[in-house]
Amino acid sequence: MTETNAPSLLARLLAGLVVILGTGAVIAALFAWFNGRAASWEAYDRLLLGAATDIAESIRVSDGGPIVVLPTSAFELLAQAPDDRVTYAVRGLDGALITGHADAPKPDRDRSRDGVFFDGQMRGEDARFVDVVRRFSEREFSGAVHVTVGQTTIARRALAVDLTLNALLPLAIAGAALILISVFVVRSAVRPLDQIAQDMAGRDPYDLTPVSTEGLPREIAVIVTATNGFMGRLDRQFSAMQSLISDTAHQLRTPVAAIRAQAETAIEETDPAERERLLDRLARRTRSLGTLLDQMLSRALVVHRTDSVAREKVDLRQIALEIVESRDHDVLTPGVEVELVIGEREVMIAGDEFSLVQAGKNLLSNALKHGKPPLRIGVSEEGGRALLWVEDAGPGIAPELLSRAGERFQRSSASREDSVGLGLSIVTAVADAFDGDIVTSRDGGRFRIALALPKLREETS
Q1: Pairing of strands 142-152, 125-137
Q2: How many other C-beta atoms are found inside a 10 Å radius of the C-beta of residue 59?
């Protein structure tokens, strides 16, 4: 097994979940902090404003000027923050200090407004201030009196922290529960992969049967289906290789032994006429063996290309034309002419050009060997199918032989010169590969055999 340093799928999914939850936690913490701070600032601002308002309400006009009688209620409100220091100042016209601390700051903004909050410093500490205006319009005194009350921010910061923690605590509990649930869900999601891995690891090296997709999630089932397709192609290639080896051992043993025996007999024969007859028979045996070998290799190559070569658009007229122009029939049956019958319209199918040529050549070869002239090869269309056919004036193929066309051999085909050999087996393999079949017909004393394939639809512009 190949080792890999890449992190597991489980680790990647969990890491992604941790990043998502961590990012959400940071965002939630920021929102909780800002909301908690705003709430605490608002609460203590109300206390500050209440204290300043109580002081402003206690101002009276006496002897031509304002006087202040500090109410205890104002300081009781501020006492709710016992750790904070407090300052106040009451200023009259032109900012003259009436009572309080002179170092209490004034707001930078328009002081004509009532209830102005602002931040400042109180003896080196951060503080919050409010400025309240009390206006008088009396005979003895007319004008505005400003009451400024300030308080350090220790209590309000502590309240902001408490509010934030109180908001984050349930979120933290929910986040921890979500992480645990996520771990369980992710492990459950990847468990089918572990089961598939165990199934594959426990298989025999030659077991290429499909892996069951029953009960698998759709995403994993797609991968398993693709793997099954690959194993199916590999199994067919492996079977084709085994078949070729088995067929070679089985089919060549008798012909080779016969050729060797005839060659030895011819060498020992002293009668010239008998030797000539033996040599002629030896030549026929050799040609028959060559044909068998060619067909065996062609069939193996066709089966191989079925799974390894992508389908392409092929014009069956070009296939028929190539078969005729190759002039193989001149070698098999010198002097016999083959008529080509094709139309002007394209007859397009999806297939492999080499395999189709081999199928057509084997149809023609069988007709040359077992049929009678005149011979014709052509292409036609019938019911949405494209037909590559060969026609002759012979008796045709026996129905029982045609029904067994998918078998590789029809009883020692190499040793009988009148056998169809592997020809129909090759044609059947091509038909199966491209969703077609073999059809036969007889009309007016002529026998026709055709490779029928699905015709491609014409593209409309």
Answers
A1: antiparallel
A2: 18
Say if residue 458 is in the same domain as residue 327: yes
Same domain, 315 and 303: no
In the sheet that holds 375-382, the strands lie side by side as 338-341, 375-382, 385-392, 446-454, 437-443
Give the C-alpha distances (Å, rounded to integers) separating 39 from 48, 79, 120, 150, 164: 14, 19, 20, 18, 10
Cβ atoms of 211 and 228 closer than 8 Å:
yes
pLDDT of residue 399: 67
Residue-wise pLDDT for 206-265, tens only, equals: 778 888 888 788 888 888 888 888 888 788 777 767 766 776 666 677 778 888 888 888
Domain of residue 265, residue span: 205-307
Token pair for residue 145?
A: 């009196």
Q: Which residues of the chain have pLDDT under 70?
A: 1-5, 109-113, 240, 243-244, 247-251, 307, 328-333, 335, 398-423, 458-461
Q: Are 388 and 416 found together in one domain?
A: yes
Q: Which of 424, 426, 450, 456 is nearest to 438 (CA)?
A: 450
169 domain residue, yes or no: no
Q: Quote the CA–CA distance of 295 and 289 in Å, as a whole number.
A: 10
Cβ-in-10-Å burial (0-12, 13-18, 19+) of 141 comes to: middle
Contact 91, 109 (CB under 8 A): no
Helix (H/G/I), strand (E/B), else coil: 259: helix
Residue 189 lies in a domain: no
* Domain final residue, candidates 107, 130, 161: 161
Task: Report how far residue 46's alpha carbon sits from residue 36's, in angstroms, rounded to the nearest whole number.
Answer: 16
Number of domains in the chain: 3
Boundary-marking domain end, from 274, 307, 340: 307
Identify whether residues 109 and 142 lie together within a single domain.
Answer: yes
326 shares a domain with 302: no
pLDDT at 386: 93
SS3 call for 130: strand
